[in-house]
Structures are given as structure tokens and as C-alpha cells.
Fold:
Amino acid sequence: MDFRLSEEHELFRRTARDFAQKELEPRAKEFEEQHAVPPEILRQLGELGYLGLMVPEEYGGVGADTLSYTIVMEELSRACASTSTVVSVQNSLVEFPIAEFGTPEQKRKYLPKLATGEWIGAFGLTEPESGSDAAGMKTTAVRDGDFYVLNGTKRFITNAAFAQVFVVFALTDPEAGNKGVSCFLVERGTPGFTVGEEEDKMGIRATSTCELFFEDCRVPSENLLGEENRGFKVAMLTLDAGRIGIAAQAVGIAQAALDEALKYAQERVAFGKPLAAFQAIQFKLAEMKTKVEAARLLTYQAAWKKDAGEDYILESSLAKLYAAEIASEVADAAVQIHGGYGYIRDYKVERLYRDARITRIYEGTSEIQKLIIARQLLGRG
Ligand SMILES: Cc1cc2nc3c(=O)[nH]c(=O)nc-3n(C[C@H](O)[C@H](O)[C@H](O)COP(=O)(O)OP(=O)(O)OC[C@H]3O[C@@H](n4cnc5c(N)ncnc54)[C@H](O)[C@@H]3O)c2cc1C
Structure:
């Protein structure tokens, strides 16, 4: 077994790190204060191919593998988790289902625009009364000639303020539970579709999170993504793959927290010695490093299995659960090593601590990952 990355993967890492250190790191605090990743950054992400990493080249994407995407996500997240959230939604939650389930016309229409960043996408599954229990959604889609008429509300939708296309789930057979869900591509500006106010969040504060309202919104029937009543499968397969990106985001945040703690522990003097001279601090750093490396290996394993065409449901949940949990633990330890300064906005660890928290919640909470893992173990997946 060879744990070394290929030259191509190393190149992805160097390029992403270079971009993140030059363009994101110095401005991440400013993005947060302005509650937005600025348009010029989105343009640069598009130019670098990061908004269409796994989209096939024939549709304008990079055609890279999942491991490359994982590495890019990790490096961007070390500098700015808000920026990596935009990248993750675009690649994992929007382009993936279109590439997997789209008709040739849908792929030709949407993928080139998304892959270059001309359009940003969003994914609308969660509703005010259903999150983990996604099949409990209330939004309906009723067929009317060549249209589906959508009614309902989606909540907590990332990228909503500026996305041009939304992957939206609705019930086409409300009696049939998860076998009555269908998936639609809804374009911004479709009559009857409006985007609500921004949520005021704890972390990833430069991302946009809004409600979506559908009031007799007529969506052309050619915008059905996948088969009617098979949309729940689209949602679940999309999230299975998407979890690898969130695991990578958590690894990146945790690595950044470790980097900051290591630096600070060697600079800060207490009782006449650098903090790093105290064994209690050394042990903390050693535990942080062990957790980050273990999370990274689990994440790369999940990406590798997906790239190898093997079943990866278990591995993506293992990676997402562990990486998300340790990102919070490592960020918390980094704040502790910074003492009072860790609680102050000027110090990066304060943002990392807040940003880490979301990875345990979105794309399936940690509890939901445990349910998936247990089902896989017990043969009930
Ligand atoms: C910043 C942000 C961005 C988001 N972006 C998107 C997006 O782009 N698109 C989208 O569709 N959604 C998005 N979400 C929604 C997110 O995926 C949900 O919040 C998440 O899935 C949890 O759903 P919920 O909030 O309804 O919590 P609930 O499902 O109500 O869960 C509440 C608590 O109960 C636990 N729980 C629930 N069921 C069980 C069970 N069976 N066993 C054990 N514990 C259980 C949960 O783990 C959680 O701890 C986003 C959320 C946030 C905060």
C-alpha cells in the first residue's frame, strides 16, 4: 500500500494552497464581516476550475477525480471555510446530481455554465419542518400539462442569494413518502419562486443561507431531474458523495487550527518558557495532530473508494462523522492554547472554532452519520 499522493494530486494541492494563502487567507475576516465571498473570488475559483472540478471535460469541467476535489476542499478550508462551502455546494450538490441523473439536454444546458462559474447553483432539500427526516417534506409538485406546479418552502439553502439554478425536491405523490419525491431544476426568476432573507449565522458567515418560497411556481416538465417519484434516491446519492467534501472541509479547518496552535505555543511565553515547553501543551498538540491525520486518512479513503468505483456509503459517513467531530475538538483545543486571545476576533482560531461547528450539522448531522454507519454494519443499508 502506497500512501503517497501522485504528482498530479500534489500539483492540485500546491496550486490550491498557493491560491488560498494568497487570495483567501488575508481576506477571510473581511469576507466574514461583509457576509459575502466577493464576486472576484468566485470568478477566480471559476478560472482555476474549482467550480467544476469533477464535471467531465466535454461539459467544460476539469474532469478531475474525487481525491483531487478532496485535496482542493481541504486547502481552501484551511484559509476560508465560507469559500470552500460555495465550492462544495457547486461541485457536490449541484453538478454531481446533474451529471449523474441529467438528460443530455440538461447536462448541455447547465453543466458548462456551472463548471466555469458563470452560474452558481444551490440545493434545496431542507424545509422548516423537515431536515434529518428529509422525506417528511411538505413541498408539493403537481403535474399540469407540460409543467409541474410547485408549492412550499425550503429552509437554510446555501448560495441562495446569488444562485441561478436550484436543485429542488418536492412531493409528486404525497401519499408515497420517500417514494413520492421528485427532483427539479428551478431557475432563478421563474414566476412564483422567491428567495427570502439571509440567516444570521454563528459561522461560515460569508456564505448565503436563505429560505426559498414556491407559490404556484410553474416549472417546465423538462426540468425534472431523474425520474418522477425517484427524487429521494437523487438526494441520498448526492449526499453520500457530498459528505466526502464536508469531511475534507472539516479536515482543512482542523489542520488550520493545529497550524495556529503550533505557532502560538512556540511564541507565547508563560512562567519564563514558551507554552510549547510544557508537557500539558505538548500532549494537546500531539492529540490534535493524531486526530487530524486520522480524519484525513478516512477522508482520502472515502474519496479513493468512490474513484475506484467501489461502494463508499460507509466510508463517506465514517469520514464525515469523524472529521466533523474532531474539527470541533481540535478547534476547541486551539482556542484553549491561545488562552484569552483565542476568544478574540483578531485571532484566526476564534473563526475556526465557529466555522468547525457547521460540519457536524449540514449534509447529515453526526447523529444521522451514526445511523447510516450502524445500518451498514447491520446490513440494513
Ligand atoms: C448554515 C447551514 C447551511 C445549510 N445548507 C443547506 C443547503 O444548502 N441545502 C439544504 O437542503 N439544507 C441545508 N442545511 C440544512 C441542514 O442540512 C439541516 O439543518 C440538517 O440536516 C439538520 O436538520 P434540522 O436542522 O431540521 O434538524 P433536525 O432534523 O430537526 O434534528 C435536530 C437534532 O435531532 C437529531 N436527530 C434527528 N433525527 C434523529 C434520529 N433519527 N436519531 C437521532 N438523532 C436525530 C439531529 O441529529 C439533531 O441533533 C443547512 C443548514 C445550515 C445551518
Summary: DSSP finds eleven helices and ten strands in the chain. Residues 183 and 281 are 50 Å apart (CA to CA).
